[in-house]
Amino acid sequence: MNASLFITCLNDTLFPGTGVATVRLLERLGVTVDFPASQTCCGQMHFNTGYHAEALPLIRKFVEDFRHSDYVVSPSGSCAAMVRDAYPRAARDAGDRELALEVELLIPRVFELSEFITQVLKLEDVGAYYPHRVTYHPTCHAMRLLKVGDGPLRLLKKVQGLELLELEDFDTCCGFGGTFAVKNFETSSAMLSDKVARVITTRAEVCTAGDNSCLMHIGGGLSRLKAGARVVHLAEILASTREESA
Fold first, then answer.
1. Which residues, other chains included, contact 95 with Cβ-Cβ below 8 Å and sequence gap of 6+?
2. Complete domains list, the chain, with CATH
3. What does the angle CA 106 – CA 108 – CA 113 come to, to the nearest 5 degrees?
4. Minimal CA–CA distance to 167: which of 205, 140, 207?
5. Cα separation of 136 and 71, whole Å?
């Protein structure tokens, strides 16, 4: 099976280790991974802040970059949701029938990482080993738009050595929301305080999620409080093995 990695601009710029972990994990599961080097931003930041016309060139570029991919896999529920949820609306609003058709053909092949593993590869035990107490934050786009459900939790429950701790009010937003955290700083900070308090209550060593954007937000809150917990992307946990921990 072949799949193309859509790394996302946030991961490429700030969290490249997540991309490395994603490739290592997928290759361990028998997937041949390629990386279209010309890929760039999916246009989510532009589209979500009202710059729909400015997002269109990025949307067309994404379609061009991944047109021939068997599958497109991303370690970001947020960016995968941008493609699957917003691209059809963007093409329709622009009156671009050709783009709308190309988007329609591409969307069924675009997956967030945990979706791809559980729904396409039909796996739950990926052979991971991670001896830590972990709590899981389901990010808004993955939960509400992609509807990944309990797939990430099923994957985490199969990780050897991992103690999975339930996060109270798990389905509440962490307050990041991209530019929302900048434009609505006070509201975002209040939401973050609630989320961080819930993470600390679990006594977990690690808070994980499928989006580094949310983890960056939560991690900042934990760090400022010197809470003793850290954030780690789901891909990095699933890519970990006993050999690496020895």
1. none
2. 2-120 (3.40.50), 133-245 (3.40.50)
3. 105
4. 207
5. 26
Tens of pLDDT, residues 180-207? 767 777 887 888 889 999 999 999 999 9
Instruction: Give the three-state DSSP class for 124.
Output: coil
Q: Give the chain's residues under pLDDT 70.
A: 181, 245-246
Q: Give the C-alpha separation, 140 to 95, whole Å.
A: 29
Strand-strand pairing, 230-233 and 206-209: parallel
Q: What is the number of alpha carbons within 13 Å of residue 210 lying toward its C-beta?
A: 32
Question: So what's the pLDDT on residue 181?
Answer: 67
DSSP code at position 41 = -
What are the residues facing 206 on neighbouring strands? 134, 230
Confirm if 100 and 174 have CB atoms less than 8 A apart: no
The whole-chain average pLDDT of the chain stands at: 92
Q: Angle, to 10 degrees, between the axis of helix 185-202 and the axis of helix 212-224?
A: 80
Q: What is the per-residue DSSP string for 202-244?
A: HT-SEEEES-HHHHHHHHHHHHHTT-S-EEEEHHHHHH--HHH
